[in-house]
Design brief:
Strand content: 15-25%
CATH topology of the largest domain: Rossmann fold
Mean pLDDT: 96
Largest sheet: 9 strands, mixed
Number of helices: 18
Number of domains: 2
Helix content: 25-40%
Structural class: alpha/beta
Radius of gyration: 23 Å
CATH class of the largest domain: Alpha Beta
Low-confidence stretches: none
Number of strands: 17
Bound molecules: alpha-D-glucopyranose
Distance between the termini: 22 Å
Strand order of the largest sheet: 3-4-5-2-1-6-7-10-11
CATH superfamily of the largest domain: Glycogen Phosphorylase B
Length: about 475
């Protein structure tokens, strides 16, 4: 005993596998395990959503009726599955009890109900420590959902103030609403702190902007993206505010759970494989073609995309290149949920090219692993990409990523070595790099080299967790 461990509380809207929509959930469900290995007393708090499966995950109630604003929360405690990381679920029927995690398909804020949900959650976080008998030294906030916490800490908490770190996973989703509604909900007049007087372009109060201005440190999930967001092109109208915090802004690359994503051991594959028996990978391809009712031929180049079907992910570019892909003898698989207009566009294409294009509108982690393993190429033509996890998982499975040279894609795909990058957000540029990638594919020796290099890359959390720990120590120094 004796030694005091750094106490850090993660507060977020998602945590895989308990509650997940996108990459944010994967990060909250995996980075804490790596920090725990570095002996951080790391705990997580998320809302107790209706959809959380209490039969599958064990939680017990540890505190009841803690006052938060005009309402109350109960606290449940359990573990992040497969770990000793403590996970708290905050319960309140009114704010967390209906619907899924978010209220819109694209996961972007579309209603005040969602704003309220996360304002309330952020308020609640600051009220629970007494009951836990545990006081974090650092509150690590993620995205707009908990970005109001640093401000609330500044104006509401008198003694024992934890430090704050805000990680931005998605700068485009900011949580803006009419200022009066937000201030009323928080029971604030609006003159408590200077930043509260700031309005965004639509004359609304912007919760993420408040987080950026009031947090002690902030970071985003790759080096390149942390620089890009200071420019007009990538700043989502927050570049000026971000520039004010430039010296406290860091870039730390995401990792993946390499035990969960492991072609050697993954139970969801037809056949397991590794760099030394790559031929087995092909059997997963045939299996996948069979499951999704595509023409079965191990020589057809198989492309895939897994993710949120939103404008960020470049789905319009995908739709544009489908006919060319199919005409050059390739197949395409898409798995994900998102904006209806993209879902419909893709479904139409799948109908037109039934034997070569399959579009699966759903969340399906098992199928996702089969796709990562069975495909030859993984597409990520994102407009912007803070980090991106798909290209990391794909490389782990020896599936070659083709992505836009931006954000985390630029930092994790090595041109012509582990994957391919294109710069201009245009179908032409995308197709050109695909053709180049196909040349490699046709040269078996070169292709195997590429796959081996990709599979040997280390995308575990080890290195990045150390960087977070360094940042935490700097924060409390
Ligand atoms: C968001 C970003 C993605 C990132 C993920 C986790 O989903 O769009 O780039 O990898 O968050 O940080």
């Amino acid at each position: 005993m004796g030694k005091k461990y750094l106490k850090v509380l993660f507060v977020a809207s998602e945590c895989a596998p308990i509650a997940k929509v996108g990459g944010l959930g994967d990060v909250i469900g995996s980075l804490p395990k790596a920090l725990k290995k570095l002996r951080v007393d790391l705990r997580i708090a998320i809302p107790k959503y209706k959809g959380i499966d209490f039969k599958k995950h064990l939680f017990k109630i540890i505190a009841k009726k803690i006052k938060v604003g005009k309402s109350f929360v109960n606290i449940y405690q359990g573990f992040l599955p497969g770990s000793k990381v403590i996970l708290y679920l905050l319960e309140n029927k009114k704010y967390f009890g209906e619907n899924g995690i978010y209220f819109e398909r694209g996961a972007f804020v579309g209603s005040f109900r969602e704003i309220q949900r996360f304002l309330f959650f952020s308020q609640a976080i600051l009220e629970i420590f007494e009951n836990l008998n545990w006081f974090p030294q650092i509150i690590h906030c993620h995205d707009w959902h908990t970005a109001i916490a640093p401000l609330l800490l500044k104006i509401k908490t008198k003694n024992k103030k934890p430090k704050t770190l805000l990680t931005i996973h998605n700068l485009a989703n900011q949580g803006e609403w009419r200022a009066k509604k937000i201030l009323d909900f928080l029971n604030l007049k609006g003159d408590e702190i200077d930043s509260l007087k700031i309005r965004d372009k639509r004359k609304k109060l912007n919760i993420l902007a408040q987080g950026i201005l009031n947090t002690d440190f902030l970071n985003t999930v790759s080096k390149t993206y942390s620089q890009e967001i200071l420019t007009k092109k990538y700043g989502e109208d927050l570049e000026k505010i971000l520039s004010k915090r430039k010296k406290d802004l860091f870039g730390i690359l995401n990792g993946i759970d390499q035990d969960r994503f492991n072609p050697k051991a993954c139970l969801n594959l037809k056949v397991n494989y590794s760099v030394s028996n790559l031929n087995q990978k092909r059997e997963n391809k045939i299996d996948l073609q069979k499951i999704l009712k595509l023409s079965q031929n191990q020589n057809f180049p198989l492309f895939s995309l897994i993710g949120r079907l939103t404008s960020q992910k470049g789905i319009d570019l995908i739709a544009k290149i489908v006919p060319d892909l199919v005409n050059s003898g390739c197949q395409l698989i898409i798995l994900g949920v998102g904006e209806r207009k993209y879902e419909n566009k893709l479904l139409k294409l799948a109908k037109k090219y039934q034997r070569n294009v399959s579009v699966q509108i759903k969340f399906d982690p098992v199928l996702a692993q089969k796709i990562y393993a069975g495909s030859d190429f993984f597409l990520m033509p994102s407009r912007f990409e803070p980090c991106g996890l798909g290209q990391l998982i794909a490389q782990r499975y020896g599936t070659i990523p083709i992505g836009r040279k931006t954000g985390g894609l630029a930092d994790t795909i090595e041109q012509d070595k582990t994957g391919f990058l294109f710069k201009e957000y245009k179908a032409g540029a995308f197709l050109r790099v695909i053709r180049k990638a196909l040349k490699f594919y046709q040269n078996e020796k070169e292709w195997k080299k590429l796959i081996k290099r990709a599979m040997k890359k280390d995308f575990s959390w080890k290195k990045s967790a150390k960087e977070y720990l360094k940042l935490y120590n700097k924060l409390i120094a």
